[in-house]
Fold these 3 entries.
Entry 1:
Amino acid sequence: MSKAVAIAHPNVALSKYWGKRPGAGNFPAVPSLSVTLTGLATRTRVVFDAALERDRVLLDGKAADAGTCVRVVELLDRVRKVARESRRAEVTSQNDFPTASGLASSASGFAALALAASSAVGLDWDRARVSDLARRGSASAARSVFGGFVELAAGAVDGSEEGVLAATPVAPADHLPLVVLVCVTADGPKAIGSTEGMRLTMARSPYAAAWLHEAPLLHERLRQALLARDFRGLGELAEASALAMHASAIAAGITYWVGATLDVLAAVRSLRAGGLAVFATIDAGPHVKVLVQPGDLSSVRAELERVGGIKRIIETRPGSDAQCETQVGRPE
């Protein structure tokens, strides 16, 4: 047997990725910039074993659904092809936060899988190549290979399935004092996965073209705000990006929000009207991530705890790269 265990963290996109380039390869249609979060983690073990007749995928102690299995096996096949590996693999992945609910579990999951699988067969890949591999399973996973603030460019219009696209670090975790309060507003997986939600948005939304035009502009302004350490500018642009993304999706009939999502947004606006620099962003799910500076944390958290629809608040900060925890190398 050859095995490795990797740990990766989810990320929250500040400028949103929503929509894919046409064709194969899983290339994003717009650029995005995210922050990798400590306090949430996926731990994934990959074991290549000659005794296995087929690949097995276990997620949070249960057999993964068919769609997830297909994506995992495709990633494993890429690793096997490069490593000239014939053995099947058992993949065991565990999240310490809700899975498939809009908290970027696919990002941390495929980042951990890409690192563990390539390490298990002894591929000495740099972070960029691991990131490109992770992107093929989940585009946002390319960003979770790196810590701190991370950018993923849009895919080339004429890119082929075998084109390379990795995320790139923009700033380290300590570049900007930031706390992200993850306000969990619902339990269980979301009804429409991100991939399907993107497909339907691009196919049906009358605002899809407007989103594809506006998203890169918001992204570049947000990137500049980050580099300038302009927290208020970054927060305003992150909130604008999230609302524009969801507006395009809602117009296609794709609604991820619940009542508590709106309640949290109202609380954030109320806090801001009271003079605090606090902003909200929402990925493809009902949960709200509240961006706040450390000095305002206690005031903001106290107010959010009064919002009845919030089930729990997870306090996170900019976090680190994905890491290989243990490895038993490929036998010669």
Note: Residues 268 and 314 are 16 Å apart (CA to CA).
Entry 2:
Amino acid sequence: MTDRAFVIGLAGVPGSGKTTLTQLLRKRFAEARLVYYDAFQTIVHMPPDQVRKWFAAGADPNEFALTELIGELTRQTQIRPDDGRRPLVIFETPFGRIHRTTGAFIDFLVWVDTPLDIALSRATLAFLASVKQGEAAEFIKWQTQYMQNYPFLRPMYLSQRERIVSSADLVVDGNQPPEESAALIRKALAPHGIEP
């Protein structure tokens, strides 16, 4: 066994299907550990003008220290005494390997390639589901900011795709049924010794 867990990074724009794939993979890899970038992100707390300036300056994600996220990745990738085989960590991230510090944890990167209009539609559907469940307060704030900023976020997401796809180990079609994408990912992980 190696000195740390195997990390699969799932990258894509908001609404691309990362969370659905994470859930499907977790069903097959029941002992997988999960790390969600969204639980640690700082960009949604930045004022829109600051986000625009960040994007105009090149949208370098390395400007975000993400200290807490790095700490969580460090904890989750540690080998524990009761680990029978190399553990798997599923890391949902919008940046893939372009954020150098968090990207250094990723052993296998999957880009979920979803057209932006489909991803936006899915993000809106997630919002509507949260309204039905009475959990809308935070999501309304996020959705409002997302829609207000979408005109300049769109080119940022297109740029993000270009930058991340080049370092991806696998690109899956976000339009295909998620079960098919999950099966492709499982097949691609097998040569690395990662099997359910």
Note: The longest helix spans residues 136-165.
Entry 3:
Amino acid sequence: MIGPCVRVDPSAGEATRQTLASAGLVDDGREITVEDGSLYIPVADPDAVPDDLDVVDFDAPAREPQTTPADLLDWDPSYERLGDVVIVDEDDPERARALADAVMASDLPVETVLNRASKVKGQERVRDWEVLVGDSTETVHREYGTELAVDLAEVFFSPRLATERHRVAEQVRAGERALDMFAGVGPFAIPFADRGADVVAVDVNETAIEYLRANAERNGVADRIAAIHGDVRDVTKDYANWADRIVMNLPHSADEFLETAVELAGDECTIHYYDIAHEDDPYGPGEAAIRTAAEPDYSVEVLTRRTVRSYAPHELNVVLDVRLTRA
């Protein structure tokens, strides 16, 4: 079926697809196709495609309709995919069972269905799971060219932050010194290293650090990542005044670690500070906390104020990109 497609190098295919999909531009009626070394992504409105992308006419085959869980249920289900795992959040056991059965009867390429059985808890930020289908909580997640093995019962990981992680990673330049204070299995650290940064990645969860090291090997960046198990407040003596970039993705309590972040910062350092804040003033408390910790030793410039997602009624998950410059 001849129609408009974005032509890209396959290495940029997933990032481009996600950009187009977030803008509602992907034509789901035609297949994404690889031919002669290029990837062709069908688009519904070529005039709305960003100018830096190459739009061409291409004969992309029609997509065969696939059965989804919604096709098999009398309600519109909510779930998320993580590798070959589908995650649901159902309190009613009968509803959870029906949804799991529909997932497995659909065309989704899934091996496991997990139901959230608790909130994230403890210092290691893990939750309990009810395994509805399958026998493992481990999977391999892929985002923007990075492969991440993860065991959801042992470590914290959210696929919902993929776009945000990519936004930050695109700012990284070769030769930077980057420090991820709460690194998990490496969703920030590994893309940073892939872009040529020297990375220190710290986490209190020893299993997460084991996965991070394995993921660094999996993605070919192990030589650029120092993975450290422990409390980040204990590494300042080795990395004081070191970092050009710091990630603080611990939104419920990152403010408790700001003094440590300032100790780790070099003469000029960009901090990505994540927070959970009320919608009436989503950025003010975080900015005030950063200024209290950094000034007067550093001047503080807020580069970005951004809402990552809605977190709860009247609460937002936000990020501040802040540049510290030593006074």
Note: Residues 185 and 211 are 5 Å apart (CA to CA).
